Amino acid sequence: MPPREGRHAVWPDRIRSEVIAAVRACGIEHPWAHQARAAEHALDGESVVVATGTASGKSLAYLVPVLSTLLDGSEAPNGRGATALYLAPTKALAADQCRSVKELSQPLGNSVRPAVYDGDTPVEEREWVRQYANYVLTNPDMLHRGILPSHPRWSSFLKALKYVVIDECHTYRGVFGSHVAQALRRLRRLCARYGASPVFLLASATAAEPSVAARRLTGLPVVEVADDASPRGEMVFALWEPPLTEMQGEKGAPVRRTATAETADLLTDLAVQGVRTVAFVRSRRGAELISVIAQERLAEVDRSLARRVAAYRGGYLPEERRALEQALHSGELLGLAATTALELGIDVSGLDAVLIAGYPGRRASLWQQAGRAGRSGQGALAVLVARDDPLDTFLVHHPEALFDQPVESTVLDPDNPYVLAPHLCAAAAELPLVDEDVELFGPACEELLPQLEAAKLLRRRTKAWHWTRRERAADLTDIRGAGGQPVRVVESGTGRLLGTVDAGAAHTTVHEGAVHLHQGRTYLVRSLDLEDSVALVEEAGPSYSTVARDTTSISVLETDTEIPWGDGRLCYGSVEVTNQVVSFLRRRVITGEVLGETKLDLPPRTLRTRAVWWTVTEDQLDAARIGPEILGGALHAAEHASIGMLPLFATCDRWDIGGVSIPLHPDTLLPTVFVYDGHPGGAGFAERAFHTARAWLTATREAIASCECDAGCPSCIQSPKCGNGNDPLHKRGAVRLLTVLLRGAPEERVAEGTAEGAAPRDPPVERPAPQDPAVEGRVP
């Protein structure tokens, strides 16, 4: 690559030669065309997104300019030398990248000093990272809560910051993506105050419209590099449906062999043949269960093989995670049953196969998981093992729904006032906000600042806005929308801490009597203390697994506005969603046969949020030819489809919203469909749905009617996150119902107008409570 002049400097051939030499020392040939092109844009000072396939060398595309810069000490403004920041959505990915950079930079001596800075970094190491590391690998959570609020301690690093790497950028979607976008704007603002203007380098293997998504995420123009020149091995992708058993389930229904048991068998067979495999599972319990079954079966063949299969999931202690990652990377482990914590970008050379236990809910996630195999250019195998679920069954029998469709668009909205408000407070706490900052944070900033002053969160003095409280402003929001203290899982006999469980998942996973799996060992939960956030467990050997059952209801707190739609009504206001775990089932591990049900006495959890809802009358049901026998299915299908279509109108993600459909709701006394924001206090999505209701529900009806399936499929009315297993659903009833409803819709200008007398709401800036499950599915 010849030297080129850019915004920063003329980059000498010597530096490029040293980097290329280091790359070749690691067994990698000269960069492919797409890597060289991306590197040249970055060296010229242009932000760039590399959107090529899995195992296409995206890491090298950004490491060439990063390492070149770190090696060139002549640019140091303060003697420290240039610095770079790497952001990953998971700790595992950051640790993996740090290991790769250390290997890659070893021939370069001490010029490159990478270090991980996250919640697992020991306190005694953090000061060294701040003062001496020049390539810091972290995550958006640590950027938001740790680095930005403490920017004076990071001043020397920020002054020299040349590159910000954002890996797996497609994961930053929905409300989480909107939060990350605002955190990046805060980072850019602080860098500018320290005299730096870093170049952003983004990478993703499964992004739709990558340059558009990257520009929305960073707020900067971004060059797209998507021409993949990397060699690729053959991938065989199998769709696997477990067989029916002789067992009978609830109400005498036939029982199909579980995806968990089938995946465990496949993992066992592949391990026996020496095939290095990762099995992705949707739940932590499932990952543990698959590893236990595989270990037991491998021990029958060869006891040494049983030690070469393990589980990997969130909630492990940091040292346990690092040991498993190292064992997988070295080849010591032949098989690993993992949650999506290992989905993103982990470079495991020599991995031959991937098993996916149940459709992960998004095509982007499916291809991310499948792409973990074959990363060295060899052939690879990917197997999607279907769960006994309408969505998975449909996909197995209609492969075109997977292979002939593009990945989903990355949807986020940095201007969402419910997201922007707490970040304006955090930014003001970092440095007082001035008029010049308005352009950086977007047009909604001007309207929000007076509201935040009225709420006594900010105060204007002379020409700047100041944070007024003693509390940390960064604690106003959790960018992942979680919250609550994690529940510690403690062995009762020894007091040993086994790990943690997220507060939002504790009721369903570590309730009294639950089977808890950890590192291949089985425990029974003896007690759950919610006040102290502790679950006491003891080792046991039950022949069953446990599945929690819950109930969800929704009540109307306040109707802000409503408009007639023929005889029906369209409403917008505040609701309370109540979820309570009421019992758990004991199921045989292999067959899934229900052995019994045990009642539980756990407190309900509530989510106060904003919702849009519509009702229909009996006359409208008669006009739509909908009787009581299909009413529930028609409402449910319309609910699913409307949630699937809302991202086109509200710049949200499907996983940001929830829904409930009820044939006779106690507050409306009519058949009612609710769609609500899955975030405490609301996030503006339901409000947007209300204002565009006619266009939104018209598109919903057309999407259902135009689908070529007979009875409903994932393309129209089935949902990947339905809490009722996509039952009941009635496609034709939903079309007729929406047709009649839309006949009475007012003109668009009426539906989009703000209700007369409705006062603007203050932005919700209180720290969110743990999120609650939705009837349409849990909102992650």
Protein topology:
Blueprint: H1 13-25, H2 33-43, E1 48-50, H3 58-71, E2 83-87, H4 91-105, E3 114-116, H5 123-132, E4 135-138, H6 140-147, H7 155-159, E5 161-166, H8 174-193, E6 199-203, H9 210-218, E7 223-225, E8 235-240, E9 244-248, E10 254-256, H10 259-272, E11 277-281, H11 284-301, H12 303-306, E12 309-312, H13 318-330, E13 335-338, E14 353-357, H14 363-370, E15 380-385, H15 390-397, H16 400-403, H17 417-430, E16 433-434, H18 437-441, H19 444-454, E17 458-461, E18 464-467, E19 487-491, E20 497-501, H20 506-509, E21 515-518, E22 521-529, E23 534-539, E24 544-565, E25 568-588, E26 594-599, E27 605-615, H21 618-623, H22 628-645, H23 647-650, E28 657-662, E29 672-677, H24 685-691, H25 693-706, H26 731-743, H27 748-752, E30 773-774, E31 777-778
Helix pairs in contact: 1-3, 2-3, 8-17, 10-11, 17-19, 22-25, 22-26, 25-26
CATH class of the largest domain: Alpha Beta
How many distinct beta strands?
A: 31
Largest sheet: 7 strands, parallel
Q: Can you tell me the residue ranges where pLDDT is under 50 for at least 5 consecutive residues?
A: 1-12, 74-78, 749-775
What order do the strands of the largest sheet run in, or round the barrel if closed? 3-4-2-5-6-1-7
CATH second-level architecture of the largest domain:
3-Layer(aba) Sandwich
> How big a fraction of the residues is strand?
15-25%
For the residues shown, what is the average pLDDT? 82
Number of domains as seen in the coordinates? 5
And the CATH topology of the largest domain?
Rossmann fold
- The tally of helices reads 27
Compute the CA-based radius of gyration.
27 Å
Percent helix, as a range, is 25-40%
- State the separation between the terminal residues, measured CA to CA: 44 Å
